[in-house]
Amino acid sequence: MSTHNSYLDMELLRFTTAGSVDDGKSTLIGRLLYDSKSIFEDQIEAVKSSSERKGLDHIDLSLLTDGLKDEREQGITIDVAYRYFATPKRKFIIADTPGHIQYTRNMVTGASTANLALILVDARKGVIEQTCRHSYIASLLQIPHLVVCINKMDLVDYSEETYRKIVKEYEEFAAKLDVNDIRFIPISALLGDNVVNRSDNMKWYNGATLMHTLETIHIGSDQNHIDPRFPVQTVVRPHTNEYHDYRGYAGRVAGGIFRPGDEVVVMPSGFTSKIKSIDVFGGPVDRAFPPMSVNITLEDEIDISRGDMIVRENNKPQSSQDIECMLCWLNAQPLRPNGKYLLRHTSNEVRAMLKEVVYRMDINSLTRDEGAQELGMNDIGKVLLRTTKPLIYDSYRRNRLTGSLILVDEATNETVAAGMIV
Amino acid sequence: MSSYLLTHLKELESESIYVIREVFAQFENPAILFSGGKDSIVVTHLARKAFWPARVPFPLVHIDTGHNFPETLAYRDNLVEELGVRLVVGSVQESINQGRVQEETGKNASRNALQTTTLLDTIEANKFDAAMGGARRDEEKARAKERFFSHRDDFGQWDPKNQRPELWNIFNGRKNMGEHFRVFPISNWTEMDVWQYILQENIPIPSLYLAHERQVIWRDGSWLPMSEFTQLRPGEEVVTKTIRFRTLGDITITGGVESDADTVEKIIEEVASSRNTERGMRADDKRSDTAMEDRKKQGYF
Questions:
Q1: Strand ranges (E), B205-284
Q2: Domain segments of chain B: what residues?
Q3: What is the spatial distance between Cα B136 and Cα B15, in angstroms, rounded to a whole number?
Q4: Domain B8-194+290-298 = CATH 3.40.50.620
Q5: Is the ipTM of this complex over 0.90?
Q6: Are B21 and A250 a contacting pair at CB < 8 A?
Q7: Are B9 and A8 within 8 A, CB to CB?
């Protein structure tokens, strides 16, 4: 049966969108969901009746994507919402976030797990502050692919000239960003041009539709396959007769490729050993790569626990107590000078103190304020942290999993910041 | 597909195993909320994979409304024995007997809302600090914004406006005494993913999910199973139909759909062509537009 056979061979693509209520983001998501038949009749019915209750004469597709009661009353999206749809080629997870400056923290959250960012530009307005803000966050969070959709082409008479002008504007701005793969697509989310089907109104555009791009963009190189990194989550010890001496280091591969027989070193202890087996439920496998969850067993009995990292001798991560990172502040309580926080990084937890705010980024103008002393909610800046124990890390540019951290306020237990190690 | 790329099911599985291992590492006394439905069956299967060759290090907690499908209980007891884990049953009937909750009356009465009190009492009595459930973000609007690690205050309540941001794969399970977490390892799965995974892994499921003949009545747009708890209303007629259930819950409110899907393969075909969500058959969600959100704020699953 073809349905499930093809389904068993599908890839997963996570992408993020950001935008305000009126730039057509909800319409675009609604169309992707609708055209991929991911909206069910009872959901459409519910949206229809809600639209009628609000006195609208059309179906408000944003009601499909606005989840919580308060948001539907106010007509805004205030949190990251996750949507799902699938085509025969790929399954998609959308992290849908509001694009307003006061929701920077939501954009950062949504971007943290995405392989691709969808940036919407209103063809009538061109590149505006919000476009820059969202693009900067996508670049800061090292999302590998940017797809810039120039939307509402129907309202500019499908003008190639307008499209070219906006592409040029964006490319000039994007020269400041750290993104390798940027694509542009002229669309009308409302009428469907170049979303799923090719547009007859823009014969001058020879590129792929949005759906085709999402389905085919190469994601095989998005993970780090170069630097072997295995943060240990927990130790599996069965204590049964059959597996009496079994000691499996459980974790999810954060980088590189591991194979049985590999010479490895355990950080921070520095003990060396050889991989005896890589196990998953039911038996051993001959290799492990990101993002596989496996057990690793070693030839030698050495003391390893949660927070340690298994790596290769000739390719070690960095180790330091002085951490320079870009920080996005997520909490209403600002970052305190000399403030102490819990720092979580891979499976490790240490205490950290803020030593210095190096600068605060103005994410609208992309300029640095070097006189800033603190970071408030939704601010992004470069800081220096001092930790009680060395962190075992890579730069975020090299590895998004071993280069990311969060800060937790010990008084409230809240997650107050997201950090990307420089 | 590139040789270093996982299929989407493998990637989802790996993510869920990672989350379940984080629960084990970050909490003192976690448990799995087991309803007997396919989602909690998948979570339990994933827990088994996460700790193999050791046994599942969590008890299964069943909140028993007293209105069960007999097949659900048989499946549960069988699984508990096979895994060698502890079973904890929280009984809604006992909560009623103790006067902790009042049984609803009237024609739409159900014990669905009462489960919240029993659930919170069970969590408190057993001092569970994390309760893993099979909720998915695709199920319902209010769940689209749920976190993997969902913090609950000491009244067990969910505050959707004050959720902790969740970045990368770093989970913050820190809490004060008396608070607990709900954790949803299969947050990113859809109904289709769950069925495909059940097929791929060959996981046994309760026979109720497969098409079978059953005595039913037509009520509120779905086929409601006849049971000792059913009260017929004027005009209702008991008929025999070939049906199956898309979700399993309290027998008095879980409606079935007419279906010939008697294998998992056929269910997948049916889900692929279905035009209604699985929860569309649940009376508890139809009470209002925000029924799920309101229940969740109070501490529902």
A1: 212-219, 222-225, 239-244, 257-258
A2: 8-194+290-298, 207-284
A3: 14
A4: yes
A5: yes
A6: yes
A7: yes
